[in-house]
């Protein structure tokens, strides 16, 4: 009796959760009135002198809505859209799970948008939806985290994977002041494309003779969640008594780790660096918990990605290597191998310069 | 006196001693969870002595304190044969609004900020309670709905804004790490709430009536218990406690955006069930639920300390949860058998 009711309850609960999983936070409904504004016009050869089209419809799809990092990127995308007269619509899931973006990609295709600018939650989970959207004429630009190469036209990389990974290792080596010791990485989710690429570079760097005194003992995953990142930081410190430094190449993780170190007996004994926003990290840099950390300007990233989307839709570029286009205030960019653009080297923030930034 | 006791009479004290022990264990229904907790902590501590350092124990208690608080409110609702799935969203809303208030008004006393967070939670609780008690809608449906409504309101108000440690007054952040005689303040607050709720549920008429409602709602109505009012009250308390947990979240984590506490409700329901609270109402204690939260938090932490690969941690965490429930269930069964035997021996001299 009780067990049957228990089963029923479990059934209702799972059903309810499955139902809720479909109810994301779509801001716009299907826009039936939109005309198919010649989306296939840009196929064929690139014409670098083609003017940017007016009234382009661009969907901006972050990993998750309400993530402050993507909110800043979205501002840049909207700013770019305004500057060349395009309509930029932001929409997206409220969780960053692998498959959560698929319905939003399908919706953008159904709405006959001209271009989709997205940061992929999972390189492969979104690929089939992206391919089908491209068949329907959408131009796909990924930024921050790439999708499978054949599923998008251009990937706008915040900084080259090499620059970021090598930069992070250098920052932790500097923070440890040549003494070296055991270090750990506190990452986001285990399947995040960008995180894994940076971690791979960090491992290559650590194998170099100049970092022989640094020993990577563990990579933990805080799932970009405050509570989990807190617990994982504590766990790292307990599991490795000789841990001297932590690299957390994710904005949520580095802030959580900084807050934990700040309030624990490990403050001042364990160095921390990573990728964080100046606003999040200001307090911890000022009180000495963190010496330095790095990041690019997310608004410039959104800005460049949106310009790239417009250049693709207007036929200025096709995504082939060596093509050039002008990205508004940021100047001219050249498409690299595998349809990749690089924003520029990341900025390093310290006590001395953090006051100049507000994002 | 004892010198005069003969051999035949010696049977009697032994039996009463056994009964006393059984009733004492019966009162400490939470023993199963304590045993499970020991089964997790002791091997981990042997493998890595750092696990039981003062800093580490403080962390374990702190990590559990927010879920434990929510579990206390949840218990009050669950014993009435209802469920409050909106607690994670209420926490998020309260955390964001509290953080925004104290960040925008730096001169405000901390206690006013916390009181505001509690008030936000209470308002959410009133909405839930009214829909369930007055509207007579099943609580599972109501709170599943408000889970999204409150989170949506949170998203709309936050508009992507994030409040960081640098924006928050130091006094509030210090509260998150402050200690009194070596015990973190947040843990003390949680213990106080557990104590108050436990006393209310055990010794007060309105508290006992919650169990009566959960055991048999129809009988409760016939017995003249104001069922609607009591259920409403339980939801308001659950909301209020979630509001308090929200302001504590701000003090602890220092970084708040609209996503704070997403998905927490399932951890809370798990803690309540592990804590021996019957999901269909009528029995269970807040102490058990709070210990359930501590057990779940400890399992998560010990897997990290034991260096279990990240990919396996979730699966193992779930399996350990099942083991914990099994241990608890076995102890409960053994106890009820023992009580039945004692009753049979007493030959019906009691009820």
TrEMBL record, chain A:
Keywords: Signal
Gene Ontology cellular component terms for the protein in this record: outer membrane-bounded periplasmic space
Pfam families hit by this protein: Peripla_BP_4
Region entry Disordered, spans: 25-48
Residues of the signal peptide: 1-21
Gene3D superfamilies from the UniProt entry: 3.40.50.2300
Subcellular location field: Cell envelope
CDD domains: PBP1_ABC_rhamnose
Residues of the Periplasmic binding protein domain: 58-316
GO molecular function, one term: carbohydrate binding
GO biological process: rhamnose transmembrane transport
Taxonomy, superkingdom: Bacteria
Amino acid composition bias (Low complexity), ranges on this chain: 33-48
Identification of the protein by name: Monosaccharide ABC transporter substrate-binding protein (CUT2 family)
TrEMBL record, chain B:
CDD domains referenced in this protein's UniProt entry, alphabetically: TM_PBP1_transp_AraH_like
Listed GO MF terms: transmembrane transporter activity
Residue intervals passing through the bilayer: 31-48, 60-79, 85-103, 110-134, 180-198, 231-252, 258-279, 286-306, 312-331
Key word Kinase present: no
Any matching Pfam family: BPD_transp_2
GO annotation, cellular component aspect: plasma membrane
Keywords: Cell inner membrane, Cell membrane, Membrane, Transmembrane, Transmembrane helix, Transport
Annotated compartments: Cell membrane
Membrane topology according to the record: Multi-pass membrane protein
Subunit structure: The complex is composed of two ATP-binding proteins (LsrA), two transmembrane proteins (LsrC and LsrD) and a solute-binding protein (LsrB).
Its biological purpose: Part of the ABC transporter complex LsrABCD involved in autoinducer 2 (AI-2) import. Probably responsible for the translocation of the substrate across the membrane.
Protein name: Autoinducer 2 import system permease protein LsrC
């Amino acid at each position: 009796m009780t067990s049957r009711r228990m089963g029923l309850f479990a059934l209702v609960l799972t059903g309810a959760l499955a139902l809720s999983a479909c109810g994301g936070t779509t801001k716009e409904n299907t826009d039936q009135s939109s005309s198919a504004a010649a989306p296939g016009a840009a196929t064929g050869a690139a014409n670098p002198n083609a003017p940017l089209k007016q009234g382009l419809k661009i969907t901006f799809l972050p990993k998750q809505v309400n993530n402050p990092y993507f909110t800043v990127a979205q501002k840049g995308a909207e700013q770019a859209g305004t500057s060349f007269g395009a309509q930029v619509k932001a929409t997206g899931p409220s969780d960053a799970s692998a498959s959560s973006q698929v319905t939003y990609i399908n919706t953008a295709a159904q709405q006959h948008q001209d271009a989709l600018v997205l940061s992929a939650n999972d390189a492969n989970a979104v690929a089939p939806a992206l391919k089908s959207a491209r068949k329907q004429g959408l131009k796909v630009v990924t930024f921050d985290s790439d999708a499978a190469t054949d599923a998008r036209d251009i990937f706008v990389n915040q900084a080259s994977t090499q620059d970021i990974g090598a930069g992070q290792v250098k920052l932790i080596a500097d923070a440890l002041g040549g003494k070296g010791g055991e270090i750990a990485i506190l990452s986001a989710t285990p399947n995040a494309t960008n995180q894994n690429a940076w971690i791979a570079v960090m491992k290559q760097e650590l194998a170099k003779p100049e970092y022989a005194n640094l020993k990577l003992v563990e990579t933990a995953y805080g799932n970009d969640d405050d509570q989990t990142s807190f617990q994982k930081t504590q766990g790292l410190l307990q599991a490795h008594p000789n841990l001297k430094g932590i690299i957390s190449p994710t904005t949520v993780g580095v802030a959580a780790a900084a807050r934990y170190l700040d309030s624990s007996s490990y403050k001042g004994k364990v160095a921390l660096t990573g990728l964080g926003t100046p606003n999040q990290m200001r307090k911890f840099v000022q009180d000495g918990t963190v010496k330095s950390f790095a990041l690019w300007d997310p608004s410039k990233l959104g800005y460049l990605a949106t310009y790239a989307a417009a250049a693709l839709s207007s036929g200025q570029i096709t995504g082939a290597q060596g093509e050039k286009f002008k990205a508004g205030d940021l100047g001219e960019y050249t498409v690299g191998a595998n349809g990749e653009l690089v924003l520029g080297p990341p900025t390093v923030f310290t006590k001395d310069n953090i006051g100049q930034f507000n994002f | 006196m004892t010198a005069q006791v003969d051999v035949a009479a010696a049977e009697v004290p032994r039996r009463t001693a056994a009964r006393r022990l059984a009733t004492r264990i019966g009162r400490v229904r939470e023993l199963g969870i304590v045993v499970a907790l020991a089964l997790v902590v002791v091997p981990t501590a042997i493998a890595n002595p750092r696990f039981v350092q003062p800093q580490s124990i403080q962390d374990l208690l702190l990590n559990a304190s927010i879920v434990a608080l929510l579990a206390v409110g949840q218990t009050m609702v669950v014993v009435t044969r209802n469920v409050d799935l909106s607690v994670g969203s209420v926490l998020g809303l309260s955390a964001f609004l509290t953080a925004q208030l104290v960040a925008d008004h730096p001169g405000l006393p901390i206690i006013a900020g916390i009181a505001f967070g509690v008030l936000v939670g209470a308002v959410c609780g009133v909405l839930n309670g009214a829909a369930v008690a007055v509207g007579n809608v099943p609580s599972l449906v109501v709170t599943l709905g408000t889970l999204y409504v409150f989170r949506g309101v949170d998203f709309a108000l936050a508009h992507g804004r994030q409040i960081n440690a640098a924006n928050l007054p130091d006094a509030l952040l210090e509260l998150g790490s402050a200690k009194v005689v070596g015990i973190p303040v947040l843990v003390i607050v949680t213990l106080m709430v557990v104590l108050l709720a436990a006393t209310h549920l055990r010794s007060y008429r309105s508290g006992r009536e919650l169990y009566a409602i959960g055991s048999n709602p129809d009988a409760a109505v016939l017995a003249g218990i104001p069922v609607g009012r009591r259920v409403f009250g339980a939801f308001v308390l659950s909301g209020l406690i979630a509001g308090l947990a929200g302001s504590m979240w701000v003090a602890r984590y220092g970084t708040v955006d609209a996503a704070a506490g997403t998905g927490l409700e399932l951890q809370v329901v798990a803690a309540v069930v592990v804590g021996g609270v019957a999901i269909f109402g009528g029995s269970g204690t807040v102490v058990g639920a709070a210990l359930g939260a501590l057990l779940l938090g400890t399992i998560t932490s010990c897997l990290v300390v034991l260096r279990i690969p990240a990919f396996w941690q979730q699966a193992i965490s779930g399996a350990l949860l099942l083991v914990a429930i099994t241990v608890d269930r076995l102890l409960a069964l053994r106890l009820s058998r023992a009580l039945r035997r004692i009753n049979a021996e007493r030959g019906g001299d009691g009820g």
